[in-house]
Amino acid sequence: MLKILFATTASVATMAIIPPAWAQVAEPAADQSSAGIDEIVVTAQRKAESAQKAAIAIDAVTGDTLIQQGISKAEDITKSVPAITVTNGGGSNTSIFIRGVGNITSSSYNDPAVTPSYDGVVLGRAAGAFGSAFYDLARVEVLKGPQGILYGRNATGGAVNIIPARPELGKNGAGFNVSLGNYDAVSADGYLNLATSDNSALRVAATRQVSDGYNRDGSDDLKRTGLRGQFLIEPSDAISLRIGADWTKIGGVGPGGSYIGSYTPGPSGYTFTPSGFDTSEGFNTDAANAYRQTLVGAPGFGFLDAMNQQQSVDYTYWGVNAELNWKTDIGTFTLVPAFRKSMGDSFFYGPAFNTAYSAETDKQYSLEARLAGSVGMVDYVLGGFYFNERIDAQTEYNQEFVLPMQSYTHKTKSWAAFGQLTANISDRFRLVGGARYTRDKKSMDGIINNFITFCGGLPPANITPPASFAAGCAAPGALPRYPNLLTTGDTVNWLVSNGWIAAGSTDQANPQVFPLLNGVGTILKTYNPVVDSGTYSRITWKASAEFDLGPQNLLYATVETGYRAGGFQLAEGKSSYDPEFITAYTVGSKNRFFDNRVQLNVEGFYWKYKDQQITYFTVDTSGTLINSNENAGKSTIKGFDVDAIVKATPTTTLNAKVQYLKATYDDLHLYTASPRDNIACPFTLTGASAGGAPVKDFNCSGKPLLYSPKWTVNLSAEQVVPLGRSLELVGNVATAWRDDQWGAFEYLDFEHIRAYWQTDLNLTLRAADGGWSLGAFLYNLENKRRIATPQRSPIGMAIARYTAPQTYGVRFSANF
């Protein structure tokens, strides 16, 4: 990899010193700009600059490109950014990975490893921005690698900045986009920009998006409404104030999936039996429920019931924020206060349980202050940041014979002081150094209770197949199947009123055992309160060098560290986990050649990752199933990224983005016990036991990180055909290759996402002045649904959520 990087860097350096007769690197004249490659202005380094001048690993996607590529939700951003993967596994949780760095977010209190931000405000949770913000955008910026200096909260994997289009002074205008497609899809968004005075402007935008579900049970649908308003005032050349507010409502059935098959334990391991379903069956069709009722669930070992309720999503996200910029003699002072709130509930089926339910309210306050200026040869950014978040939630995960219930309040307070200095050693050479001190305080006040129905008595007197069948546990009506309850008191009352346990039984604040009155089984109620708090702190730093080979040729090298705080969770014996750390080395070059008609950007990276926070299903000391956050040892991530754009003619543009990635766990051990031990890694016995079963240490060292395909390739071509003086016909084809990758930590065969191509087509007729356009689109030409999120259910099934099927339609846009 280093040889390839050095060779590429050398070739770039050679091209940069080619005589001007062969490579004109001067800025294009105004009348030539339409023939060259457009600039994208980014603010990733807390200043407005061309993406080509920013000595950082960044992909920026403009709002126009988002519309053309049909990117209306976060999962689709990989169409333009090969390094990123975004998944939604159910409820309101969103998981983000960049180059294998990320975490499967199954609980709302898990901090993201890739930090999302909306309009300059760092968010504690990803779902709000990624579920609501994709309309009337200026751009989306994806920063690759740790962001430990200039961003509000530390991120080990990167950051995703969603930046809405801002009010424009002195301009009255409006615009809209409307599209109609298969699956009864209707998408409409629009904006209005009003010059309210000579020095103020108002911008209002709204969206409505609906679509039928891609699955036969109605899941993977879309029902979203959003509204955003911003007011900008600049009373003088020195002061500007922008105030914004946004509101989003998300409803519908929500994310879904399908059964791939089931695993049956035996003396020689687990046997897999395919379900026979295609990728669009869903979990709640007649056929899916009939299949479900052929499967046996532990530890009651009776046949499962059909889903007891249709899944649904009902969430509201809203927030207010402001940005004050004040130019002073010592620099520009920036103040960004913000408040955000999300609230709602959802019923969902993940992971192949019966019905899970989550009701949650999140509130966050944040304040960031920065001072940016110059003293002599040194440019500086100094600042401070405060973040305060509270999450109140109640959840249940109905597994029919097991009913876990959680109720908790999770709080986070974080503050940081940071600074970055740039020494302009010469007109062409710069040295950059930065540091940030972060202090995070977290607390958890909650409880997890499980009602667990065993066939027979409590372990080790419980009865397992095939003896459980002889004991009558699989007979109809022999064991209770829990309804969707949220409190232990309601659950005990339900068991009493339905004649399962003795009359007069009451709920007590301790573990309890309830024999079934029919003598077939026993119910254990666990009692696991978690009241804990802790403080984490870290100094992260950055050092880099930048050199301009020419006016449009940049070389840079950076080393930067990142940190993500530890935290607390509802898991007996594993109530806390430690921080994670990363050190990233980067060498890169950004270039424009041939009169601004060729762009070639190259980046090589080498990351060392320590104590990664991972989430997987395991058991606690009593043998009870838990979804645990744990630290995974060490990993190494290395590779290179090549981004090329060629403006072959004034009307022909070619794009290619290629990433090579080798991301490997140097040290990864997973611990669990039967019947939760279906993991495809060699194991040894630890000598401990959980619920009477021996605990196994699965050594998965040498396995790839999740969502880290070895090769990713994005290719596209656009051709503009003039039709007279006022019309243009634009054709665009874009295709993407994703190499093999893994989607879950058990490394089972179905969790291996096979390599694939996916191709999108666009054909648009538009006014040459950009006033309107009418187009047709077809996404996923191959008409294949690929696995997006595989998951081995703890109750024995292999399931997956899939990417979108082939979609097509028409789109009309206008600006006036």
UniProtKB/TrEMBL annotation:
Record SUPFAM superfamilies: Porins (SSF56935)
Membrane topology of this protein: Multi-pass membrane protein
Annotated signal sequence range: 1-23
Main location: membrane
Locations listed in the record: Cell outer membrane
Keywords per UniProt: Cell outer membrane, Ion transport, Iron, Iron transport, Membrane, Receptor, Signal, TonB box, Transmembrane, Transmembrane beta strand, Transport
InterPro entries xref list: Beta-barrel_TonB (IPR000531), Beta-barrel_TonB_sf (IPR036942), Plug_dom (IPR012910), TonB-dep_rcpt-like (IPR039426)
Domain (TonB-dependent receptor-like beta-barrel) ranges: 260-781
Domain of life: Bacteria
Pfam families: Plug, TonB_dep_Rec_b-barrel
Segments forming domain TonB-dependent receptor plug: 52-159
Family: Belongs to the TonB-dependent receptor family.
Name the UniProt record assigns to this protein: Iron complex outermembrane receptor protein
Species: Sphingobium xenophagum
